[in-house]
Amino acid sequence: MAAGEAVVVGVRVRPFNDRENNLNAVVCIDMEGPTTRIRNIDTGDEKTCPFTFDESFWSHDGFEDDGTGYLRPLPNSKYADQRYVFDTFGQRVLDNAWNGFHCCLFAYGQTGAGKSYSMVGYGNNKGIVPISCEEIFRRIGQEKDPQKRYEVTVSMIEIYNEAIQDLLIDVELRPKKGLEVRESKALGIYIDGVIKRPVESYEAIETTIEEATNHRTVGSTLMNATSSRAHTVQIIEFKAVKDGSATVSMINLVDLAGSEKAGQTGATGDRLKEGSMINKSLSALGNVIEKLADRGSEKKKNVLIPYRDSKLTRLLQNALGGSSKTIMICALSPASSNHEETLSTLRYADRAKKIKNIAVPNENPQERLMRELREENEKFKKIFEAMQGGTMPSADEIKEMGLAQQEIAAMEGALAELNKSWEDKVAESREQQEAARMRRSSVNGVAALKKNLQPMMVNLNEDKTLVGRVRFSFPPGRTLIGGLGDESDSDSESGSESDSDSSTGSQPEGEKSPEEMFEDEDESPHIELGEGVARRHAVVFHDNDQNLCTIYAASEEGLKQTFVNGKSLRQLLKSQGLEEVICRQKDKPEAAGIELSHADTLVFGRHFFVFVDHMVCAPEILIASGQVDYAQAKREWQMEQLSGVHESLIVATRGGVLGVSHVMELAEKDEIIESQKAEIAELKQQMVTMKAELDRYKKMAGGRLAAGANMLGELYADELLESQMDEISKDIQKTFKDAIDQMNDVQAIFSKKALREGHLTWRSVT
Ligand code: ADP
Ligand code: MG
């Protein structure tokens, strides 16, 4: 048996960021050759523990800007620049692909540690992905054999919340639940229906990546997701064809979600388990690596590897434990304040290097497919013939037949794909892209160019590369901003403050309050945002003559959940002595609003934007100026959330006042907020069930009462039946008692809920 080949693991430490510099952060990482040491400075524990990897990349200091923005090493420094990292790791990936192996490169580490910097890079400091792409076409260009052809396709996907999304499809055209990972004996593991874009030059890859990044931003802005929680996978399929036979290698380049999510969960226990669902894939990856490392280093050869636990591990099954050459680059923060996270990343990396894979070069896919197809077909035929001969197939055989059928369908599809000429594929893909472009330009309207010169808002994001990619302009007149609305506040709860009373809510049809009539107006928002934004949220009125944009609340929710520079509209109006009016009119609003100025931050629900007045400067310039940043806007907004809730918190903790710093810390933990929201939702659901139960009891008790009264009437004269009456009245009493007990239970839940909600208002608004 061939000896396994270990996963190649490298760690890389980045420079301090501005925040760390301002806080005079202390370095806790040391590197010497392939060895990395970490010190726990905070606890005064100077003990260091060494970890040895294939590479330890020192990128913390010892560098300078070469004048183009590219960071190069100073003379005699050990600084590892982007080129060096590519030469040691990226080059290996390409060599493997050239030799017909599948390969995979992962970037692991906490958010902000430098994963994307290594993978994709920023500006002139291109990362492994773009350099590899350049290199692929450089090598193709150098091919001397005229008989040899190369075909390269690119797919880009994202895994967020256990759904696989194709980043090469417009957000609104994607299937809601995402794509499925399937496995076929002949095809191995593949994503059903993923777009494979044929690319014939580096520029084509670059455009494809750019397109995917745009889709990712629109998606995450609308879905309220942060990119740090998504895994991005770029799949390059590389095929070398000569004399009708081909080798195919898949190159998977994986920028993983921030590892701190998984870590935090483990540390904080049950409460956050729910939050951890958000990154099931990452914890599953940890388990898989753990098991594979066991298999690689000990006698436990037969451990079951839980690939199926998540979409990510399933997709990368081959890369992790199969016939793939795998490289992992773990990004480290140098600051002692991140000691714990960094140590856990190092341990992770240490486990990963114990994994051993056996990579075999891939054979001609066409021949293998044909062979497998024939085999499957034979099996299928045998069962079928037996059936015709009158033998009923067993349950197992039926199952096998079903599987065979699936397998055959998948293989037929793949064969058809293989038989298409490369030229056809390229032409087909061009057509698709052109259609998508047409669709987009017709959606954007003819005035797309003019639109750019209107005042607008552009998105902010924690990921720098995504800032400014979503733009909404405000043409002269009125623009309504809305979202999905809160589905739970329709029907059952709307308008009834005293929702414990089930007898309200039966208003005669057709009689509606002016408010309701207004809400009925079927006006879809001009700017549609996602979750957490009311259907009618805010209105921006652009007065062209005065060159002035004013923002108004379009609903109660909008009043509370629209923020300008961190202050809610409600608060802003109050502080200016203006009435808290909600803008109802369709034409020019007369309600009180807030005038917007260039570079104001705007928050709707949790969607962050910055207002850009084109007369002052273009959005690119504003963003590049560093005048606005997401972290700052988010802090402002968080402070605002906190100041409004301090009081309710004090009430809720019943005397035990929490320190402000403690409160701040809580506010930072998105996961807590998420899990508590879910808890409230669950509680709500419980209450609905209890309410229904209670209604049933009330009805039952009423029915019994009526029956009892009837009987009493009939039997009134009959003294002999007095004892029976006693029985009945006892029965009735018991029913009442039960009903009252039940009612008390419900009451207790109500007050518990009220207490919780009072306590949580400020969290659940986020
Ligand atoms: P992640 O993808 O892990 O969340 P990023 O790659 O976005 O983190 O890095 C966070 C910040 O640190 C970015 O501003 C990036 O430019 C900077 N950075 C990361 N690694 C390096 C490096 N090796 N050299 C210089 N700057 C780096
Ligand atoms: Mg990143």
Brief write-up:
This protein has 766 residues and is α+β, with helices and mostly antiparallel strands. Helices cover 45% and strands 20% of the residues.
Distance between the termini: 57 Å
Q: In which range does the helix fraction lie?
A: 40-55%
If helices are DSSP runs of H or I spanning 4 or more residues, what is the number of helices? 23
Question: Quick check: average pLDDT?
Answer: 74
Radius of gyration: 32 Å
Give a count of the beta strands, DSSP E runs of length 2 or more: 31
Form type: globular
Instruction: List the bound ligands.
Output: adenosine-5'-diphosphate, magnesium ion
**Strand residue percentage:** 15-25%
Task: Report the major sheet.
Answer: 9 strands, mixed
Enumerate the spans where pLDDT stays under 50 for 5 or more consecutive residues. Answer: 262-275, 443-449, 487-520, 646-652, 654-672, 756-766
List keywords for this structure.
766 residues; alpha+beta; 9-stranded mixed sheet; 6-stranded antiparallel sheet; globular; binds adenosine-5'-diphosphate; binds magnesium ion
Describe the structure.
- With 766 residues, this protein is of the alpha+beta class.
- Helix content is 45%, strand content 20%.
- It is built from 23 helices and 31 strands.
- Helix 2 (82-98) packs across helix 4 (128-141), helix 20 crosses helix 21 (660-668) and helix 22 (670-715) packs antiparallel against helix 23.
- The longest helix has 46 residues, at 670-715.
- The two termini are 57 Å apart.
- Bound molecules: adenosine-5'-diphosphate and magnesium ion.
- Adenosine-5'-diphosphate binds at residues 14-15, 17, 59, 71, 109, 111-117, 122, 228, 258, 331.
- Magnesium ion is lined by residues 115-116, 255, 463.
